[in-house]
Structure formats: C-alpha cells, structure tokens
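notes to self, project folder thing:

trying the whole complex as one job this time. last attempt i did each chain seperately and stitching them together was a nightmare. two parts in total, labels are on each line so i dont mix them up again. if this works i'll redo the older ones the same way
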Amino acid sequence: MNIVVCIKQVPDAESVKWDRKTGTLIRDGVKSVINPFDYHAIEAALTLKDKLGGKVTAVTMGPPQAQDAIREAMSMGVDEGVVVSDRAFAGADTLATTYTLSKAIRKLGDVDAVFCGKQAIDGDTAQVGPGLAVRLGLPCVTYASHMEILHGGKGLRIRRMSESGFDVVEVEFPVVVTVLSSLNVPRVPSLKGKMRAKKADIPLWSAADIEASPEKIGLSGSPTKVYSTFIPTFEAKREFIEGEPEEQAGALVERLKEAGII
Amino acid sequence: MANVNYFLSEEQQMIVDLARQIAVEKIIPVRARLDETEEFPWDIMKDLAQADLFGLYIPEEYGGLGGGCFENCLAVEQLAYGCIAVTTTFAASALGGYPIVMFGTDDQKKKYLPDIASGERLAAFGLTEAGAGSDAAGIKTTAVEDGDYWVLNGTKQWITSGGEAEIYTIIALTDKNKGARGASAFIVEKGDEGFSFGKKERKMGLRASATRELIFNNCRIPKDRLLGRRGLGFIIAMRTLDLARPGIGAIGVGLSQAALDESVTYARQRVQFGQPIISFQAVQHMLADMATQTEAARALVYAVARTIDSGEKDISKISAMAKLFPTDVAMKVTTDAVQILGGYGYMKDYPVEKMMRDAKILQIYEGTNQIQRNVIGQALNKEYARR
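result (full assembly):
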C-alpha cells in the first residue's frame, strides 16, 4: 500500500490572538501545531499500514518550518514526508492548494489511499480533501467516523456522517478520505520514531520540482478574494430567568407565548 | 526566570517531552476515574508501549533503547506528574525486568526481554511475604529441585501488578540453612502449573495499580528458569532494589512537582480577605519550601542516577538516599498542598487529596524509609571505620 496523509501546520488555537483593527490573526510568537483533525488522518493512515503493510508518506504545503509538522508525523510512525514549499505558493486558496498538493502526490507515484483531516481549524473550508480527489481523479469519502477494511483488502467500508445521519459506503482503492476526530484515537509518538524523525532528511519541493504551472499556483491560481474578516458580535437580546426550577419553567413558557413561538 | 539546568542530552530531553505528553494527554484526564474504580490502566500501558518507554533500560540487542538508571528516572518523574499509581505499574515491569537484564543468560534475555521492552508483556517482582517485609531474609517460599524442574511452594504478598503481569522474578529459599546464601531467583510465568493469584487488595492510595498475592502450590517450572546461580537470590534482590530506588525517588519528585503546580495555581486564584492568598507570607513560605525541597530532591535523584550509570558498583548508600529524601519530600509537599487548598484540597473535586493518599506508599514500598536510613547508617559506619 502506498498511503499518503495530507497535513497542515496551523497556529495553536490556545495561544492565537486576533488583531481587532486589521481583522487578521497575530501570528508573531504563536506556536505552530499540526491541525487537530490531521492527527486523526495520520492515525487512519498508520492503522491501514499496520493492517495491510506498505508505506505512509506525509505531505504538507507551507514554509520550510513546516518540516516540524512532518517530523512530528514521523515520530508517530509515518515513514517519510515532504514539504511543498515555494514563495510562489503564497496566497493560495483551496483551488490552488489542491492543485499544488495533487502535483506533489503525483510525483510520489501511484497512491492507494490519501487521508486528510475533515478541515483545517484556521481556514475551516473542508474543501481541500474533496478538491484533491477531483484533481487526482479519485473517489472521495468525506467525514469518515468509522472505517474498516473490506474483505481481501481491496478497499474500505466507511461510515460517513452527514447532517441527517450517516451513510455506510464501500469504496475500492485508490480513494481519498477525509476524517472526523471520532474516527480514532491518535497514537502517541514513540521514542524510536522521535529519534528517527530528528535525523530524517525532509525534502522541500519547489514549484519547479513538482512541475506546477505558474498560473495555477499561489495568488495567481486563486480566484478567491477575501474582502473583509471580522469577529461576529452578539447583539441579540439576552435574559437570564431566575428562581426555582418551576418558576423558571413557567416564566420561560410565558416568554415563548409572548414571542408567538408556542 | 531561570530554572535549574540539568544539561540533558537531546535524547534525554525527548524522553522527558514524550513522558510529559503522555502524562498530560493520557493520564491526567483519567486519573480520578482510575482512582475511584481501581481499574487497571491497560490503555495507558498500551500508550507507554507504543512510545517505546518499556524498553528504556533494556539493551538495544534485546529490543530496548539501551538507556540507564537516569533515563528511567526522567521517564517516571514525568509520568508521576500525572499519576503515581499508573507510574508504579509501569515501573514494576522494570523491577521484574532488571534481574533478567543483570543476571539472565543470553537465552533468558532473548526469551523475555524483547517482550518486556515492547510492552507486549508486563513483568513483576516478588520478594515480600506476610512475614517478610523489612526483614526480607524471613521469606518462607521454597524452591526444591525435582529432576528437570524446580518446585515452588509458598505465598508472596502485595505484589505490584500481580495477576496482570505475565513474567515474574521470584525470590525463594533453596537452602534453608545457608542464611543469606540460601535463596535463589526464578522466572515464573503466568500460566505455569501450580501458580495462581490471591484477591486484589483494596488500598488507601495507588488504587489504579493492582496488588495481589502470588500463590505457589507445587508450582513446577523448568530448570532453566533459575536466574543467575543458586544461592544468589538475595544478592539479585538487593542489586535490583539498589538500581530501582532512585526511580522511586523520581516518582516522588514528579508527584511533588504536580502538587506544587496545583498549589501555586490555586493560591494565585483563591481570594480571601480581599486578596489572592499567595500574597500572604504564611502561604508564600509554604510554597517556597515546597519548591525548594522539590528541586533539591530532583537534583539528588539526577546526581545519584548519573553516578550509578557511570559504573559505580557499591551504590547502596547513595541509592537509599535517592529514595529516602524525595519520598519524604513528596509526603510533606502533598500534605502541604492539601493544606493550601484548604477545604477544597480535602475534596475529591481537586487532585491533591489523591496525591496525598498516593504519596504515603512512597515512604513504605521498595524498602521503608526507616530501612533506607538503616542502609545509609550502616554504610556510614563502614565508611568511617576505614578512615
């Protein structure tokens, strides 16, 4: 099995601050961490490798310091990794990102499975997994919450969550899967993994290395324009109803009647 | 603000970071539940196995990482920051494994160490009996040669991980009349004929660790399970305990650090008489003593562990010191933590009451702190006689 896991380095949600004037994240001095959902994608990839054998490669697009994310993935058991890194990639939206990642994955050769977290906690689009599947011409199963290997190891049976419930789908390899945190419990790193990761040579692939067309990457490949970002403010009327539970319930019913809801 | 620099190597720092990560992510969220239910922490044992930590002290040729006493201390200190019951379960496997590392034949090492190193099987150590605690020489369990077998009879008491572990190092009498040379060490496996377990003990603290009797009723084991030579039993036991005692000290350090962290955090938040209680000197002085004693304990453990790893042979005195001081400190620091948290500290909603209950065992197991003082005192007597 040739398994790929796509990961992203994001600002640590616990230490990130917001500049209210400019409406942007203050990234200075903020620790970068692996996107929380991506740990579950790594675990899914490693579980598949544990059962079917093969190799897991982690791929990320970002600045050279994204090598830290690859090293962390390797400390958990990922075999190797690559950072797709080039100033020309800067400003990429999901359209350009999926193009760039798909070129990198193609350079890795034929893949059997690609795992992604359901979305990144900074952009929150959930578009990269499905977009990548389109670029690679592979079937895509999103929001996986349970996964088992089909008899004979030819594919996967996946429970995918939707707003109205869940679907159970069977899909043959090769496939792109985006995962929820309920899919698994990510394993802890191992000491041997940490030592190996520390010494590992993690290549940086430029736009030229992956033979990317300049007009499809970075800002020029990104039709998305951000007009403004802001913190939503909550201005609706709020009221705390006090008293004993019976009184509270009675008062609540009154309010709902007044509002014409019941 | 500077912290004491212990000049850890890159690998040692990795051990610290990894063990702390497991304590924070895997142990702390479940420790209160494990304490309440007395459930054996199998899930965490699997995490520790995945992390390669069971193999820290085991030579690389047998699947370990080839670390020493110091690396083991670094790991258990951080795990103990989370929960010392879980840590004791982890450390007990090393206590069962050390005798095989130090005295096993190549065949015995090949057979047992890779499984212990990978965490596939837990190990345990059986010396204590109902009538033989501090007086280890009072053991009654016997091992008698019978053709190609040894036949064991007797009962070991309060054995950590008893019933859960699969590989046991057992000290039994082989020549009742030979005194200190009358005991031998054996490897007994769970499932061996005539080997069973007593009921699980209910304890004041350390409740997630399993403590049971080991019962040998005409337990027949093959000849090649003898560890070292016949008559070496007490020497093997003492060498094992000498090597393990700094680890108990390190558990005390980790526990003290956890209690200190809880105390300072609470004292900064708790407001009485219109100000946070940390602004009162009475509280500040307690915290200052707790922090200073914890650091002193850490420095002692690290220095002794490094001395042991440098190849020093006669380590009984320093090893006893590295167990005695940090565990007395842990008892004091956890007791003071409960005092600083006051009524809240006494409640199960806060973690310090468990820390205080747990701390008590550190002054008792692996040789009571009175026995540690005996060891140190006797060593001093010998040392000064030579002057």
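what i see at first glance: Residues 90 and 140 of chain B are 28 Å apart (CA to CA).
need to look closer tmrw
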